[in-house]
């Protein structure tokens, strides 16, 4: 019995050691991935800041070019209107056109589910595509057999 107790202790020790190695490996892997993602995020942020300054410079150039033939306030107003139109068009490009929520067949938030959450059967009873014919009266016997 002592021998089995000793083996059981070794098994527990081995499991704890393997779990520790797995945790360290996962931790190191996550640390490396987060380091790469931080670097990528910083590069995207720097790119966005540079693009913002470039856009400001272009807006200033457009305003100064318009100010050659117009008063300063009119040039600034036209430049602001152009930037507003550009912002509206970019927003429209970012959000594709969607149907009206009350449109038939439109599901808010995506597509209709393939089935109910329970996974049992169809979400709705199937609709017949043809005329089912005259209604059957339960009181009148059917002689089609």
Characterise the protein shown here.
By secondary structure, the chain is an all-alpha fold. It is 61% helix and 0% strand. The chain has two helices and no strands. Helix 1 runs antiparallel to helix 2. The termini are far apart.
Strand content: under 5%
Q: Helices and strands: which structural class?
A: mainly alpha
Judging from the principal axes of the Cα atoms, what is the shape?
flat
Q: How do the helices and strands follow one another from N- to C-terminus?
A: HH
Number of strands: 0
The amount of helix comes to 55-70%
**Mean of residue pLDDT?**
77
Distance between the termini: 80 Å
Low-confidence stretches: none
| Radius of gyration (Å) | 35 Å
- Main sheet summary: none
**Helical stretch tally:** 2
Kindly list the characteristics that best describe this protein.
2 helices, 145 residues, single chain, mainly alpha
Helix and strand topology:
Layout: H1 2-67, H2 72-94
Helix pairs in contact: 1-2
Summarize, please.
By secondary structure, the chain is mostly helical. It is 61% helix and 0% strand. Helix 1 packs antiparallel against helix 2.
